[in-house]
């Protein structure tokens, strides 16, 4: 196992910062590594706390009386200079758990009401996103969405289109569009499951 010698905060931004990690590898060679993190300071980094508290939440929700549509957003992302299909998602506030965060984020991004469903911990606990670059982790909340689509609660900096996609549209999206990887894997379940969330019954 490598040894971390020092950590220096490189930036001072509100939502994400860059940290420089100086280390010695298991092969006794020097390591100069950079980590992007939601942490506000060195002491809050997951490599320091060793605690995997979710930074954000993603929401896999089904819509419609026949439970035949999945709620997606088509969002412009400056990292790509293009649009990408994702699940509704967002950061968890300090004073809320991730189920509460999911309900809030669903409303803010889509105008829809989310009714979360209980699932085994293995399906909802926070997992890491792009661990070669960041310590960010996200929990997943599953549920059923209802109501009317609205953009009234979206932030002025956001460019979001809400998409209620059936299986044919999901097939097209996977074949032709930019899709976030976590969303893509879940959409593959949506295509294969005869009943919504059937795969969630594999672990009890």
UniProtKB/TrEMBL annotation:
Location of the Nudix hydrolase domain: 50-187
Enzyme Commission number(s) of this protein: 3.6.-.-
Highest taxon of source: Bacteria
Keyword Hydrolase: yes
Record's keyword terms, sorted: Hydrolase
One MF annotation (Gene Ontology) recorded for this entry: hydrolase activity
PANTHER family: ADP-SUGAR PYROPHOSPHATASE (PTHR11839:SF1), UDP/ADP-SUGAR PYROPHOSPHATASE (PTHR11839)
Protein name, as recorded: NUDIX hydrolase
Organism lineage: Bacteria, Bacillati, Bacillota, Clostridia, Lachnospirales
